[in-house]
Design goal:
Layout lengths: L3 E6 L8 H10 L3 E6 L9 H7 L4 E2 L12 H8 L2 E7 L1 H9 L5 H8 L3 E6 L3 H5 L1 H12 L3 E2 L3 E4 L5 E5 L3 H12 L8 E6 L4 E2 L5 E2 L6 H12 L3 E6 L12 E3 L3 H11 L5 E4 L6 E3 L18 E3 L3 H8 L5 E8 L3 H11 L4 E6 L11 E2 L1 E4 L5 E3 L3 E2 H21 L2
Parallel strand pairs: 1-2, 1-4, 2-3, 4-5, 5-6, 9-12, 9-14, 12-13, 14-17, 17-18
Antiparallel strand pairs: 7-8, 10-11, 15-16, 18-20, 19-22, 20-21
Length: 401
């Protein structure tokens, strides 16, 4: 049975962002029920929410007069975590003192799960002493409050009051749902393609979007790890709270990874690093009239192989292999040659796997010749499976000491 998130949407302008939030929660393999107040429906259509949600959209406590009105209890009991986004000054006040005069506020009073409150309002409203007192009351009651962001507000003012972006809220929800089983570990993840230029405007690259590496970094962070993401040019936007070292070329990625490797417990190399780069690079744009149709390439350093040669006994190294032919044999050679603790084989010829897909189909290969074939699943779910194997490898290694 999937974990259930109850999302309460109230009447703030930021409500228009909530379909994106629902989509991110569903992408994290969460079941989402939505309660939208009547005021919220001025900013977001229930049809938009229903399109992206896996659960039901509730707007009225008395929608079905022929049915006993106990939906607020059912919704409260089924929730593993509740989120109020946007949380207006009005719902914050109701929640802080226990007022129950509509479906959302009544459900909040009946909750027994963890609650994440995401305030959104004018800067002067946010700074109001009564609002701050209510916020403090919620925190003292054990609820979690995301501090609103600063910036230009819909009302024309500039300051605190903006609801955090959906990516930040979704990450916070996942953190609440997951035990910090990776706490204390420093994990370095690489993601995305590299770009190897041969003049000021042209370069060699590949189809990697960075989705898999980004999913690993986000899930590791949500589970308590100290994460560093070394990323080539991503085609997806990372959340603002994820530490990123941006690079472009394979040489830049090697430098960033090797500099940080000695202080790292785990490295997960999900980036699709170019094997070759142009031998010469022009500082300007080469005109086609003067361009040599033959571009001479030189081999890039093999970062994963170098990590395998230099890793310490307690460090864990995970590599990826994107294959199309003789996938298992080629992946096993890579596992051995690069001294990996785990290799994630990705047969990119399969439907639902590979570059720029939201799902993946992977196989885990181990040095003892064991292997595991996983079913098709979201990249977030694959990321958790990889991190689970990392914990198992660490546990086995330390138990043998």
């Amino acid at each position: 049975m999937k974990t259930t998130v109850l999302l309460g949407i109230t009447g703030g302008i930021a409500a228009y962002k909530t379909p994106a939030l629902v989509r991110l929660l569903v992408k994290s393999d969460l079941h989402v029920n939505v309660i939208a107040t009547k005021s919220a429906l001025n900013f977001v259509a229930p049809q938009a929410l229903a399109t992206v949600s896996t659960g039901s959209i509730y707007t009225d406590m008395w929608a079905n007069l022929l049915k006993p009105s106990i939906e607020h209890i059912e919704l409260a009991d089924s929730a593993d975590v509740a989120v109020i986004a946007p949380a207006t000054a009005n719902i914050i006040a109701k929640f802080a003192v226990g007022i129950a005069d509509d479906l959302l506020s009544t459900t909040l009073v009946a909750l027994r799960c963890r609650v994440l409150v995401c305030p959104s309002m004018n800067v002067n409203m946010w700074r109001n002493s009564v609002v701050q007192r209510n916020i403090e009351s919620l925190r003292q009651a054990g609820h979690h409050v995301l501090t609103p962001e600063s910036g230009f507000l819909a009302c024309g003012w500039t300051g605190e009051g903006r609801m955090p972006e959906p990516e930040i809220i979704a990450t916070a929800v996942v953190k609440l749902l997951n035990p910090p089983d990776l706490k204390g570990l420093r994990i370095l993840v690489t993601a995305g393609p590299t770009e190897e230029p041969f003049d000021a405007v042209r370069f060699i690259t590949n189809r990697s979007s960075g989705k898999m590496g980004l999913a690993i970094a986000q899930r590791a962070q949500a589970r308590g790890a100290d994460v560093i993401l070394v990323a080539g040019p991503l085609r997806v936007s990372p959340p603002g709270d994820l530490p990123i070292v941006p690079v472009r070329t394979a040489l830049e990625m090697r430098h960033a990874v090797m500099d940080r490797f000695p202080e790292t417990d785990v490295v997960i190399k999900a980036a699709a690093v170019a094997d070759f780069r142009p031998e010469t690079v022009s500082s300007g744009k080469v005109k086609k009239e003067g361009m040599d149709p033959i571009v001479r390439l030189v081999r890039n350093p093999d970062i994963l192989e170098e990590l395998g040669r230099t890793k310490k006994p307690k460090q864990i190294l995970v590599g990826f292999a994107a294959e199309t032919d003789n996938a298992s044999a080629n992946a096993h050679k890579k596992l051995v040659a690069k001294n990996l603790d785990l290799l994630v084989l990705n047969d990119v010829s399969q439907v639902g796997a590979g570059f720029d897909s939201d799902t993946n189909i992977v196989r885990f290969l181990y040095p003892n010749d064991a292997d595991e074939q996983l079913e098709i699943m979201s990249k977030d779910a694959v990321a958790d499976q990889i991190l689970n194997r990392v914990l198992a490898i660490r546990s086995a290694r330390f138990s043998n000491e």
